[in-house]
């Protein structure tokens, strides 16, 4: 089957069946690949295009207008600096998430997650290590508006277990044009997908 056909959605699926289908298709796409950039790129594309093809969201007023990842900046290649520059910047870098693979309009490049300075839905999901489901982003304290058309949002943390300790390494973020665009069924499906993505990659 061509890779692009992974985003085709059978007719007649209810929402739990839709998320099971997407999870299954993503597991096939990720099989045999451990690079996190490659896997997150395919994951964001599959999610985005599957949601466009699913009638409950589609391309109209309930469209999911952004789907992608933010990752802990430590996962990205470090810039090539002189020894002096490294010494000057080493202690000044705040904890932050950087924009990773996504589908949708251009987005915020970084999100501050340093203690006392973190704000927004992605920062809260990352710092609290739990999914944040927002029915009205304009009513959410500290919301960062990357796209003014977004009305609701769901963010799932990417949780990696290292030496028996669970830590957040990033988030999976989805935006919707409609108020109350996501519910607990979406949250459950996305949390399974977030775990699949984490387990499928070498970090």
From TrEMBL:
GO CC, any one term: cytosol
How far does the signal peptide extend, from start to end residue?
Answer: none
Q: Which domain of life is it from?
A: Eukaryota
Q: Which GO terms describe its molecular function?
A: L-methionine-(R)-S-oxide reductase activity
What InterPro entries has UniProt attached to this entry? Answer: FRMsr_CS, GAF-like_dom_sf, Phosphatase_reg/MetRdx
In this entry, which stretches build a coiled coil?
A: none
Q: What is this protein called?
A: GAF domain nucleotide-binding protein
Q: What is the lineage of its organism?
A: Eukaryota, Fungi, Dikarya, Basidiomycota, Agaricomycotina
